[in-house]
Automatic annotation (TrEMBL):
Protein name, as recorded: Amidohydrolase family protein
InterPro entries noted in UniProt: Amidohydro_3, D-aminoacylase_insert_dom_sf, Metal-dep_hydrolase_composite, Metal_Hydrolase, Metallo-dep_Hydrolases_sf
Chain ranges of the Amidohydrolase domain: 46-490
Cross-referenced Pfam families: Amidohydro_3 (PF07969)
Species assigned in the record: Streptosporangium jomthongense
Length: 507
């Protein structure tokens, strides 16, 4: 027997949940062609996996790599955790489909602190054009969700009202075309503008063409408001018949998990992703601006910020750490009160100043009210739930980002498997690879089996560990040194090979 790549003597986690078994994995071209004791087999490349585990490439179900998947630092951060595929187009905002320069500029500007600026495009993009740009341009695969907020802005601008029948028809046409061009679902960000102005009827109508592909939602409420968010999610699922996937599901497990179970008992296909941290990260405008300021209309929002008296919620200031402040990079990594003190200003006035100076582009890391032992117990319970999949919610923009983009999957594989026993390695392979592959319609991926695409990770289970911290967030993880994407080595000995076999996966 002869193969292009032979992975020798590893403990195979095949993604079915079955116990690990000792085997060799033979790869020819982009496919796994044999799994077993391949005695006497030869290959151009042999990877000695003795004492390590071989598992399917992990799928990050929620990550903001839309512009930064081309960046070698981001690719290294993902691959060192075993992640081979990014699911993009999250929270209802990304670069396509846009038909006007204004819509493309809005999607870029409003989420600049989250997605960054696309390095190869500066104008309107179809989904087909966006996906074509990912093919062969990164070490990572990509999957794309149609972003509701972008579509809404493309049709309705910054309108803070329900869609008319004609506007709904125009949005629906964009959804149908985007799906035909290779999108793998439809996403919303119901705490962001302009998505928050849509009602359940609009969202259900736009979910109707999805078929088996999911409606992926940043809900209208989390934590103490999760009941509001999940009530709307289940309403949309009932109206549309769509499968539902809830983004970064966090909060008290005793409240959140029964809501998922009740929906599934009703026959609704509900799953979710979460990351194993007690702090979030987002744009400062979403956290700090009062709701009466029209964030979707940047010029008007800035005018009001400069001219009107703002009643700030001062209780949030100590919970905010600045992650991205273009033009005032000295403030990145400081809490907002610390940065305000250095600037000689009150926190509210400093917040106003940086929002105006950055044109709402500033980003932050945000401590949640549930930070503490009870919050950690909730994270552990949520990770154990069978409807769970992994998502980092990784944001790579700014000088001091949240560490989750560099450590979420390593933390799940290390701390939550080895240290706490919340999952077994066999369960982790299901939660982080095969279950997400099914959820997003990625046929031929998520398993170590002959005939599957050879996205393969070699993991040292004793050594895997997240090293990124809130104080030092850009440190790659340890314990994953060899990764293949479509049968091509992209990480060898812990170092990028420079190969870019990643592609946009179209369901």
């Amino acid at each position: 027997m002869s193969f292009d790549v032979l992975i020798r003597d590893g403990w195979v986690l095949d993604g079915t949940g079955a116990p690990a078994f000792l085997a060799d994995v033979g790869i020819t071209g982009s496919e796994i062609t044999a799994v077993g004791r391949l005695t006497g087999a030869e290959a151009a490349t042999v990877i000695d996996a003795s004492g390590r585990h071989v598992m399917p490439g992990l799928i990050d179900c929620h990550v903001h790599g839309d512009a930064l998947v081309f960046d070698s630092e981001v690719q290294l951060a993902a691959l060192r955790q075993g992640v081979t595929t990014f699911v993009l187009g999250q929270d209802g905002l990304s670069f396509a489909p846009t038909s006007t320069p204004e819509a493309f500029a809005y999607a870029t500007r409003y989420f600049a602190a989250v997605n960054g600026a696309h390095p190869h495009a500066d104008g309107p993009l179809s989904v087909a054009e966006l996906l074509a740009g990912y093919d062969g341009a990164s070490a990572l695969n990509t999957v794309y969700l149609l972003p509701h907020g972008t579509i809404r802005y493309d049709v309705m601008g910054a309108a803070e009202r329900a869609a008319s029948a004609d506007e709904l028809a125009a949005m629906l046409a964009r959804v149908e075309r985007g799906l035909s061009e290779g999108a793998a679902g439809f996403s919303t960000g119901l705490e962001y503008a302009p998505g928050r102005y849509a009602d359940a009827a609009e969202l259900a109508a736009l979910c109707a063409p999805l078929g088996a592909l999911p409606y992926v939602t940043h809900m209208r409420g989390y934590g103490a408001n999760a009941t509001t968010g999940m009530t709307e999610v289940t309403d949309i699922a009932r109206r549309s018949g769509a499968a539902v996937h809830v983004s970064h599901y966090h909060g008290p497990a005793a409240t959140l998990l029964p809501m998922v179970d009740r929906a599934r008992d009703e026959g609704l296909d509900v799953t979710f992703d979460t990351y194993p941290y007690l702090r979030g990260s987002t744009i400062l405008a979403m956290v700090a601006l009062p709701s009466w300021i029209p964030a979707a209309d940047t010029d008007r929002a800035l005018s009001l910020l400069e001219s009107e008296r703002i009643e700030w919620d001062e209780t949030i200031w100590p919970r905010i750490t600045l992650s991205h402040v273009p033009g005032a990079e000295w403030a990145e990594g400081l809490t907002l009160p610390e940065a305000a003190e250095r600037a000689g200003a009150e926190p509210g006035e400093f917040c106003r100043a940086i929002l105006v100076a950055t044109r709402l582009e500033a980003g932050c890391v945000m401590a949640r009210p549930d930070e503490g032992p009870e919050g950690e117990e909730s994270v552990r319970a949520i990770l154990r739930h069978p409807a769970h999949t992994g998502g980092s919610d990784g944001i790579y923009v700014g000088g001091h980002p949240h560490p989750r983009g560099y450590g979420a999957f390593a933390r799940m594989l290390g701390h939550h498997v080895r240290d706490t026993g919340d999952l077994t390695l066999e369960q982790a392979a299901v939660h982080l690879a095969s279950h997400p592959a099914r959820r997003f319609g990625l046929a031929g991926r998520g398993l170590i089996r002959a005939g599957q695409v050879a996205d393969v990770v070699v993991l040292d289970a004793a050594r895997v560990q997240d090293l990124a911290t809130y104080a030092d967030p850009r440190v790659p993880a340890a314990g994953v040194d060899d990764v293949l994407v479509s049968g091509v080595a992209v990480l060898a000995g812990g170092t990028l090979t420079g190969a870019t076999p990643g592609r946009a996966i179209r369901p």
